[in-house]
Write a structure and sequence with these properties.
This protein is mostly helical. Helices cover about 75% and strands about 0% of the residues. It contains 14 helices and no strands. Helix 7 packs antiparallel against helix 8 (about 140-170), helix 12 (about 235-250) packs antiparallel against helix 13 and helix 13 (about 260-275) crosses helix 14. The chain is globular, with a radius of gyration of 24 Å. The model is unreliable at about 1-10 and about 325-333 (pLDDT under 50).
Length: about 325
Amino acid sequence: LLLGRGARRGTLWPARPHLPRPGLLLAAIALHLPYSLTRSLRLRYALDPRVRAATDDPRARLPRDLLHGSGLVSFFVILLLPLRLGELSRPLILTRAGVPGVGLPEAIAGAASERAVDGLFVVGLLLAGVARATSLGVETGAEAAAQVGRGMGLVFLALLAGLVLLAALPPRLLARWTVALPERLGRFVLHFAATLRGLAAPATGLPLLAWSAIYWALTVLQLWLVLHACGLPLGPAEAAAIVGIVGLSIQLPGGPAQVGSYQVGSVLALGLFVPAADLAGPGSSFVAVSFLLGLVGAAVLALPGAWLLARAARRSAPTTPPAGPSTGPSSEA
């Protein structure tokens, strides 16, 4: 229904592209690589401790090719599959790689931690952006957006609290509780909790938070560049609020390539800050350009991601010794 209303208002796709500052769009495109690499590297802080524990090597790490390759490929898969089914793609890729200490529970625990942290950042951006915009005199719809943000913030806080509680349980107590579970499920819970326990250490948890802050700062900067490229001279506060609203919108299960949920979130966010007369021109151009930037950027970067995964597989493949002379049974009497 919301998608249909947005289409009738002419805000989902421009009849004529409005791009008065294409140089800023080029800057936004150039920012997509560091944005994607920053997003992919954060999982290192959840999985490196498990690799070190499994190999008993204090310097062991998840292979860099596998880390970034799995991220770049999975970002595109997440966009392709409906209902956010692609979220499982990266844990499955990492599990199939066979790295010591990295199985499905470890990979899922790392991804779940990222999502909880990202959810809180999105809500924080929305609330901070709406508060700043309100102080500048933008009031229409701001309180409704803030209420949605506060509600979703409680959801992400509950998720994070559950992860923290699981990590805080003493391993022996958790082992006793999982005895009643089926064997495979019990092992999954124990490995899942061990990964979370590693993230609770400042040496891993704080870098995850720091890189997440950098990732979301790059997200706001990229969107701000696209806004100005399309002739919408909004400030950083408004850009942060739009990132927050769109970020919450695409958390909802939607169709392939996030078609629908992305457009609805963008239209609702722009409606807070952009006059109705600008929604059909610069506004619709922004919705289309920002959507295509994310989709095409993910598709293009999936290619080097697949190459990185292939290189990681070659490097981890066991070497076969050269065949020697035949040592079959002797034919002598």
